[in-house]
Each structure stands twice: as structure tokens, then as C-alpha cells.
Hints:
Elements (H helix, E strand, L loop, with lengths): L17 E7 L2 E5 L13 E7 L6 E7 L7 E8 L10 E6 L12 E11 L3 E12 L17 E2 L4 E11 L12 E7 L2 E4 L10 E10 L6 E8 L7 E9 L7 E8 L6 E10 L16 H10 L13 E11 L12 E7 L2 E4 L10 E10 L5 E8 L7 E9 L7 E8 L6 E14 L1 H8 L16 H30 L3 H17 L4 H18 L6 H23 L5 H33 L4 H20 L2 H18 L8 H7 L4 H7 L10 H7 L3
Parallel strand pairs: 3-9
Antiparallel strand pairs: 1-2, 1-4, 3-8, 4-5, 6-7, 7-8, 10-13, 10-17, 11-12, 11-14, 14-15, 16-17, 18-21, 18-25, 19-20, 19-22, 22-23, 24-25
Amino acid sequence: GDQLTTTNENGRSGTSDPYVKFKIGGKEVFRSKTIHKNLNPVWEEKACILIDHTREPLYIKVFDYDFGFQDDFIGSAFMDLTSLELNRPTDITLSLKDPHYPDHDLGSILLSVLLAPKEGQREVTMLRRKSWKRSSKFQPQSLRLSDMHRKSQLWRGIVSITLIEGCELKPMDANGLSDPYVKFRLGHQKYKSKIVPKTLNPQWREQFDFHLYEERGGIIDITVWDKDAGKRDDFIGRCQIDLSVLSREQTHKLELQLEEGEGWLVLLVTLTASAAVSISDLSVNSLEDQKEREEILKRYSTMRMFHNMKDVGFLQVKVIRAEALMAADVTGKSDPFCVVELNNDRLLTHTVYKNLNPEWNKVFTFNIKDIHSVLEVTVYDEDRDRSADFLGKVAIPLLSIQNGEQKAYVLKNKQLTGPTKGVIYLEIDVIFNAVKASIRTLMPKEQKYIEEENRLSKQLLLRNFIRMKRCVMVLINAAYYVNSCFDWDSPQRSLAAFVLFLFVVWNFELYMIPLAFLLLLAWNYFLILSGKDNTQHDTVVEDMLEDEEEEDDRDDKDSERKGFMNKLYAIQEVCVSVQNVLDEVASFGERIKNTFNWTVPFLSWLAIVALCMFTVILYFIPLRYIVLVWGISKFTKKLRSPYAIDNNEILDFLSRVPSDVQVVHYQELKQYPSHSPNKRKRNNPG
């Protein structure tokens, strides 16, 4: 047992910071709090653990907590549940062992256990008390078994922290910069952010969830470090979040000044109660109370349209239940909980354990800052050993919500492109002021701090390319249609277009531009009302998304067999198409620039002559007459010269101007007589 005295990170001999994990079937079912600097800790904690059968033993592991480092293993033991009698409290002492050193005496742990039947023929193991002691010269402390001091370890809430950014941090490296990362600690729970290299103003945009065990809150310790390869990381600063002063069910934006250092951190913190409460018991269920409802309606009435412009509206979401969820655990069950997000506000329900048809019956309220926001409701499976497993998601635009209607939403996959298993029942109410919402629409959107990082995907690249191509094809088809009028393919259509062109140009006024868009909107609205709306484009996008989903599934299955080069070949076809389009766009811009840069003096002089002529013509002749002459010339060109090739003079001119790549190709190299080309290449440092 000598290693117990040297396990903590600072090397103080004779002490440890022990805590205990309990596992059944490889899944963690309970974790005790940490007792600091004690080899004879007394926990006096109580937890209820649901078990399906007693054949699976209870695995108990004791660790020494080390902040900032991996916790050290102290010892473990198994408890055979089949040896317990029903409804009889039993005190059990288990010797701790290390499987690698079975002869070492590592101490013992004391438990008070009650096995009791529960409804549905399931059994409950009640861990009434846990106490671990060293079997050495140290004597155990007195065991305080009073029921008054027993405290449930079931977590009472969730603390969601979004680490947004750091500002003006202290430079720790020789280059005047740092490679900062952040550590968070709440009790025995700890998280570490990613490292952002070479910056004093890092952008993290990461989100962490802590379980809150204390009703009154707690203190989250935050430290900022500079990553140094090959040596100990440098300390940049520290700060704390006192959760007891933050209101529940609300997202707080905090700017925390770093102590013992420079700069500050920007975070979003949300505290969510996790107790299982019914809708009627929830104090924030504002719309059930008629007086509260009238107060909210009054707050967003037309009479108060210019009061607090940022407060656009009020959203109430009732998360009622879910049905037929996906089984995420090996037992064929899940431990589902629900996350409700509106922009950067993120609230959670409690977890319903071992249930594929959970009932949450929880109400959330949000202040709406932008009526065009999308409500996202995601169902996860809680897993204490690792991050939560995704079960399904729905995204609901606020403007599409029908107030007061309990509606079943089919859960979708992570990409929201197709269904997954399960249905969630929600009842949503939206109250907003239309004037405030309209004004807010003309202001910048609120930036979402947590967004999924984009990954390289052949299907995603192809989809975006096809979307862009479809948009461009609309313009190209419109140009083809106009050209067909100029070509007199259909004499009746060309004649009608010619007469319309003369009439519009002769009578044109600026107000006709917004009027044309107004007529287009009215025409499409009429098509929708008459049921003649063409929704073919929606099915095209849906088909693309379904293909992408199937391709992603195939990629997931084949990912182990595919090498890096195979993936490159798979996206080569799309990359070539994108590469060609980018080349065309870049070349067009570079040719315009090189015209004005006198790259080819002959073309620049030609441009000067043409621009002088256009300037004189526009000065002396009204624009209306110029457009009329151009239009008449275009319409009559095919009549005058049936075999003339259609062209655009400006594009023809630009095609003669070299792009930057062509300028390099045409550039002459200086001759070095004393060296061969190969030697010159080696000797030339540039």
C-alpha cells in the first residue's frame, strides 16, 4: 500500500484524494464525491441503482483524483449481488486489490447495502454508505451513519458552458504569442479545451456540460495554460464561476478577468434544473396562467412596438414525451434526455433511465431576439463513461409553429436530411410583435457560438457544386431565352418582345424596377393559391440529400477499408469541376485588373479609345436613346445578316487580356551563360 502515499500530483507523501466509481456490466452507474487529503475517507453518500438481474457483479474502483493529470488507480473489488438477501440491510467490507499486483494490500472499502424488489419485477441495490480505509497503521475514523446526514448523489442539474474566446492573453513564448488551452473543474468533473496555436486572442467555440450535485450551486475553477512541447506547460491565469449567484433556466454571457495573469475569457453559462417535475408544478409555465398570458400578450402588443426593440417575442416549449427511440445501450434500452436550443440559449431536461418511451413533461421559456431563429430539439442517450450518444433531432423555424397544438415530430438524423428512429411530442407557443420582428430582420443575425466543424466530403462537395450550377443555369437559360428573341426563332415571340422592349425603354422610370419585383412576388403568390406552384426544385434537393446520406452510410461502413489515396480519387471528379469554375472566375477578375494595369499596352490604349468614345456619346445623347439604338440593332441583326455569329464585344476584348497565370507563362527568364539551368536552380536561393 506504499503507492497510496505518493499518488497525488504534487508529490506530497502520506495523503491521497480518493473517490469511488461503481460499474455494472461495464457501465458506470454511480460516482462518489472526492475526499481531499485523506487515507481514511468517510463519504456517507446514498444512491439508488436499478438492476435488471443480480447475476452481474458490482465492480468497485477507487481512484486518487489528480487535477490536470490522469487520475491514479488505487484499487478495485467485486461484490456478488446474488449473495444478498432481499429487504435486509447488510454491511460489507471488501478488500481492494490491483489485478497487476494481486499480493499487494491496498486497503478496504465498507458498504451498507440493501437489495429490494421494485415494481415491474426489477430489483434495486441501495448503496446506503460507502467508506474506504487503509488497512495499515492508520485507524479508521468513526463512521457517521445517521440518516440525517446522508445525501443523495443523484445530480440535480446541468451546467452548460460554452467557451467562446479569450482576449489579450499574456504572451508566454519567445515569439510574443501563446498556444492557449483552458481547463475546467467542478468537483471531480473536469474538461480540457482544444489548443489554439500562436495567438493571444484564441477562438474556441467549444461546449461542455457539468453535472450539478449541490442544490446551492458550486464553484467552477478555470485555468488557462500555454502548451509547450517537451516541457511543462506555462500557467497563463485563472478565474472562477460562482454558480450560486446565477439564475436558473437562463443563459448568462460572462466576461471573466484572469487573475495572476492578463486578459479575460468570454463564456456562456446556463444552469438547468434536472428534477423530474410535471408541467403543472413548473413555475415558468407562464401561458397556463391566464393573468400571466395576458401580461405577455400586452408586452408584445402593437401599442408597445418601440419599447425594448431587442425583445421581439416569447417562446414556450413543452417537451412532453418521446416514443420508440433507438436503443443505444447493450441492454436494448436507452437513458434519454432532451436538449432544447434557440440560438445560443441551451436548456436540458432530466434523464429518464432505461426507457425507450420517456416522459419528460418539462416546460422551457425563451425570449425571442430574432423571429427567424430555428428551435432545435435533440434527444441524447446519457453515458457517464463517454460523451452522450445521439438519438435524434428536429429543427423547427419559429414562423412555422402553430400555437398551442401538441404535435408529434419524427426525429431526424444529425444532418437533418432523413428520419431516424422515434417520435417526440412537443407543444409550442410563440408570441411576438410583428413590427419589432420586421425591424430586427434588417439587422445582423446573432452569431451562433457552437457550430459543427465542416469535414471534407465528396457528396457534400458535389451537392454544393450542383446547387451552384442550378443557380447559374437559371441565369443561363434566361439568357438563352432572350437570345432566341434576338434570333427570331419564333417570329411572333420576337415581334412581341421587340414591341415590349420599345414600349418599356421609351416609358421607363426608376419606380418600375421595384414594381417588377412586386409583380413577380404577386404572380408566384397567385400560383401558390391556385395550387399550380412548381415544387420540383424541392424534390431535386431532397434527392441529393438522400443520396448524400446513403453515401455517408457507405463511407462509414467502408472507412476502415479505404485508404487516404482512395478517398482522394473519390473526390477527384468533383474537385476538377470546382477547379475549372474557380479558374474561370479568377481569370475574369484578373483580366479586368490587368487591363487597367497596362499589362498589354496595346489593349490598354484600345480601352482608352473606347472609353473616350463612350464618355462623349453618354454626355451628348440621353441614355434612353442609346438603349433604344442598341436594342433595335440587336433585334434586327439576324434580319440584316442571317449568318452572322452572335458575340459580346466586351467579353471578346477581355479574352485577349492575359490572366496572372498567363503573365507568368509568357514572362522571359534571364540567361546565365556561366551556369546550366539545373545548376542555376540549385544555386538560386529564391
